[in-house]
Design goal:
Blueprint lengths: L1 H17 E9 L7 E5 L1 E5 L5 E5 L10 E5 L12 E6 L2 E2 L12 E3 L8 E5 L9 E2 L3 E9 L7 E11 L2 E12 L2 E12 L2 E8 L10 E8 L4 E6 L2 E7 L12 E4 L1 E9 L3 E9 L10 H4 L9 E5 L2 E2 L5 E11 L5 E9 L13 E3 L9 E2 L1 E9 L9 E12 L8 E6 L2 E6 L9 E7 L12 E4 L3 E5 L7 E8 L14 E3 L13
Antiparallel strand pairs: 1-29, 2-22, 3-4, 4-29, 5-21, 6-9, 7-8, 8-21, 9-20, 10-19, 11-16, 11-21, 12-13, 12-20, 13-14, 14-15, 14-19, 16-17, 17-18, 22-28, 23-28, 24-27, 24-29, 25-26, 25-28, 30-31, 31-34, 32-33, 32-35, 35-36
């Protein structure tokens, strides 16, 4: 009876010794270094100040007609193809206060400077010296106060034409709680410069984001001002100031600099100048410009997790998350016994519920994914603080504790003690002519469930080195650890039972 109890206890011990519970974790104190993919995802301060994963505001896609794009994501503005930075004085807002991207420009009137001052390079829109074609200028603002005189954009130039000098001016200013656009002497009628003013109908609201866009179509002379996608004012730059008139001539003179956020108190973001007319293509246009977060959501994927054995068992997924109303996070898991030829769709991703027992998820390699979705207005994002995959690790089988080798004529006789692994299915012999290098022509030899084997076809007098490896139910293609190395030298001498005294 005592013997049976001892055997039972030993079996339980061996089961725990060679099937180890393990956890793979993303986030929290472990960080996010083991993430292989972040799509529309950013890592920002979360619970206890540790980084958490949330949706990032989508970046505008820019076509080849873009002349200037100030995203303000980097406080040190650089890589402006068509402009040289003269000065900057804005402060970074952080993602939470930005309209798009990681940052916006916090502007203050105390500085008495422009948030950004740029010098146009030759060929840029504000460099001038060319006939005016179609263009679009747009930006987002969130004024702290709607103080009169604050300038969002300003450009000055001079144009010498037929003995006359035109002092040109383009600006967008806050006047009477509205944005007023001024185009001075850009268009000419009867060789005289004209002044064009467009003022919105809608009032600016403090601490509220609004999108402002002015666009000109050089094919029909239409100048259009939109706020939040809705047309606020239009002007036809034709001789009749109507749609069917002859388009007025327009030319830009040599510009010196262009400034953004002068004496403006508030936040400025996504300033874009484009050498094309902006059309309203569909009814969803006015909705899309307000979508701070991508409607399709974002995705993160872990690196491929190697558990070490083909019979590792995934137990459950444990997550720490924050989900504002209407937001969602969907988790996925996939697995296989090899890590090659993995694609976006193979092995198949399986949707799982955190905290629920996983059935039949047995493999060596696993991968976790999380898909984050915003709320209905694309303003609020869910947040993932930690993801933990709890699994039972299938350890590689342990080798024999002792191996013995004896040289005989043209062969070496090997014997070994059994592996203590409870699921050992057989053994493999590795050997060679140099220590640790088991590259002999017949190596390795799969010998199955035996504790002795004679390796034949060896040369007498030559030294050979051996190691024995166990394999489990995963098969000989997945061998375990190498045993302690032994050596022997085959010999043709006959054993002598009686020695001369």
């Amino acid at each position: 009876m005592k013997r049976f109890i001892f055997v039972g206890i030993l079996t339980i011990f061996l089961l725990h010794a060679f099937t180890e519970e393990a956890i793979f974790q993303l986030g929290g104190t472990y960080g996010w270094e083991k993430v292989s993919k972040l799509e529309n995802i950013t890592l920002e301060p979360g619970r206890f100040g540790l980084r958490a994963a949330s949706l990032t505001s989508k970046h505008k896609t820019q076509d080849n007609g873009v002349d200037l794009y100030l995203s303000f994501d980097d406080q040190n503005i650089h890589n402006l193809k068509n402009y040289t930075v003269i000065s900057t004085s804005f402060l970074p807002s952080g993602q939470a206060n930005a309209k798009y991207g990681n940052n916006a420009a916090i502007c203050t009137v105390q500085e008495q400077k422009s948030a950004v001052s740029l010098s146009p390079r030759q060929g840029s829109f504000f460099a001038g010296n060319e006939v005016l074609g179609s263009f679009t200028i747009e930006f987002w603002i969130k004024p702290e106060v709607t103080t009169a005189g604050a300038t969002i954009l300003e450009w000055n130039a001079s144009l010498a034409k037929t003995g006359t000098i035109f002092y040109q001016h383009i600006s967008a200013r806050i006047m009477q709680n509205k944005i007023e656009w001024l185009f001075q002497d850009i268009w000419q009628k009867n060789k005289q410069g004209i002044s064009v003013n467009l003022k919105s109908k809608s009032m600016l609201l403090p601490e509220k984001w609004s999108h402002h866009l002015i666009t000109y179509n050089s094919e029909n002379g239409l100048l259009e001002y939109r706020i939040n996608g809705y047309i606020e004012a239009i002007e036809f730059l034709t001789d009749t100031r109507r749609e069917n008139g002859e388009i007025l001539f327009a030319e830009l003179g040599r510009g010196t600099k262009v400034e953004f956020g002068k004496e403006f108190s508030g936040i400025l973001d996504e300033c874009i100048v484009n050498k094309s007319f902006s059309e309203i293509k569909n009814l969803s246009y006015t909705t899309e410009i307000f979508e701070r977060l991508p409607l399709e959501g974002g995705r993160l994927e872990s690196e491929i997790i190697d558990t070490g054995g083909n019979y590792s068992q995934a137990f459950y997924l444990e997550v720490d998350e924050t989900k504002p109303e209407q937001t969602e996070i969907v988790y996925y898991l996939r697995y296989a016994n090899e890590q090659f030829n993995w694609t976006e769709s193979y092995p198949q991703w399986i949707e799982i519920t955190p905290g629920c027992d996983l059935k039949n998820f047995t493999a060596r390699y696993f991968q976790i994914a999380a898909q984050l979705y915003p709320d209905g207005t694309c303003q609020a994002s869910p947040m993932v603080h930690t993801i933990k995959l709890n699994y039972e690790k299938d350890s590689l089988p342990l080798p024999p504790n002792a191996v013995y080798a004896e040289g005989v004529n043209g062969a070496v006789e090997l014997t070994w003690t059994p592996s203590v692994d409870f699921d050992t299915q057989g053994y493999i012999i590795y050997y060679g002519e140099r220590s640790g290098q088991y590259f002999y022509k017949e190596s390795p030899i799969i010998v199955g469930q035996t504790l002795n084997y004679t390796v034949t076809g060896l040369e007498n007098g030559r030294l050979y080195f051996f190691s024995v490896v166990a394999y489990d139910k995963a098969g000989p293609d997945y061998p375990g650890y190498f045993s302690k190395e032994v050596w022997a030298r085959p010999t043709g001498a006959v054993d002598c039972p009686y020695k001369v005294q």
